[in-house]
């Protein structure tokens, strides 16, 4: 699928449901997803953080767009299910910016069976599904939930 400024037709391949754990909600595969398939294309709202501080709640769900898309001082809020994927390291998806910079693309890196949780790696600000460090929760002052 090609992402262009004109038309985005990719619906999410996931659904929101309770995980049955302390994590609460998560996104789950609505059907089997193959490695390499786009799971969701999330429109993003870009925020120039130099204009003011983000509220604490918002700072926990923004993506570091500067590291991800090569901008300076910009964070992005992913719409759709973009801010609701739970953390995994390794995760079964990666995320990346679209060529036009207006979307966050979530892509499966492994086969994901129907009704299995879809995860991204919070630790890697460039969207990689695995990182040697697993300290995002500690760095933002949040207790990780299993």
Describe the structure.
Helix content is 9%, strand content 29%. The protein is mostly beta strands and 146 residues long. It has a single domain, classed as SET domain (Beta-clip-like), CATH 2.170.270. Strand 6 (93-97) and strand 7 form a beta hairpin. The model has no long low-confidence stretch (mean pLDDT 83).
Main attributes of the structure:
146 residues, mainly beta, Beta-clip-like, four-stranded mixed sheet, four-stranded antiparallel sheet, 8 strands, 9% helix
What structural class do helix, strand and pairing data support? mainly beta
The rounded distance between the terminal residues' Cα atoms is: 35 Å
Per CATH, the architecture is: Beta Complex
Tell me the number of helical segments per DSSP (H or I, 4 or more residues long).
Answer: 3
Low-pLDDT parts are: none
Provide the helix percentage.
under 10%
Query: In the CATH hierarchy, what is the class?
Result: Mainly Beta
Number of domains: 1
Number of strands: 8
- Using the alpha-carbon principal axes, give the shape: globular
**Strand fraction band?**
25-35%
| CATH fold topology | Beta-clip-like
Concise structural overview:
The chain is mainly beta and 146 residues long. It has helices at residues 56-59, 65-69, 136-139; strands at residues 14-18, 25-29, 38-48, 74-78, 86-87, 93-97, 103-108, 117-120. β1 (14-18) and β2 form a beta hairpin.
